[in-house]
Amino acid sequence: MDTFLLILRVGLALAVVMLLLWMAQKKLAKGNSGGAGVHLDVVSRRNVGQKASVVMVDADGMRFLLGVTEHNVSVLHSGPAPEPEPAFSAALEYAGTADGLIQPSSDKRPRSEPNPLSGSILSPKTWQQAWAAVRKGFNL
């Protein structure tokens, strides 16, 4: 009975401490929303010393080159951010056009519906290919 009460007290104390830590984290996170409207992306970062680095940052359409040390952050250069590259799907759509230099296939065979399991571990074809590779590797 004494062991049970001890475990209960320790569990209750742990729960209270966790609750207090959670409340403190929520309180600190609320007070840290000074730049909530600014979109910030770290493009790249290079270390130039043990405690110094150069960081390229995009913020609100501007690109900044920052020198970062242990005690200081300074702007080395700034300018307009470059336009983002087109999305992968847009590039694929362009590749399928005549401008993308990919010509339609002259193959007139009807295309079968893609198997939803194609390429997954659940596909029988995947297991057949794996077994063929094992047989070839062991010369079976």
Note down, in words, how this protein is organized.
- By secondary structure, this protein is α+β, with helices and mostly antiparallel strands.
- The protein has a domain at 2-27 and 40-80.
- The chain contains three helices and four strands.
- It has helices spanning 2-31, 88-95, 124-138, and strands at residues 40-47, 53-59, 62-68, 73-80.
- Strand 2 and strand 3 (62-68) form a beta hairpin.
- The termini are far apart.
- 0% of the residues are buried.
- The model has no long low-confidence stretch (mean pLDDT 78).
What Rg do the Cα atoms give?
29 Å
SS content category? alpha+beta
Q: How would you state the average pLDDT, rounded?
A: 78
Fraction of helical residues: 25-40%
Largest pleated sheet: 4 strands, antiparallel
Low-pLDDT runs of 5+ residues are: none
The count of β-strands is 4
Strand content: 15-25%
Order of helices and strands: HEEEEHH
Shape: flat
C-alpha end-to-end distance? 66 Å
> Helix count, per DSSP?
3
Largest beta sheet: strand ordering: 1-2-3-4
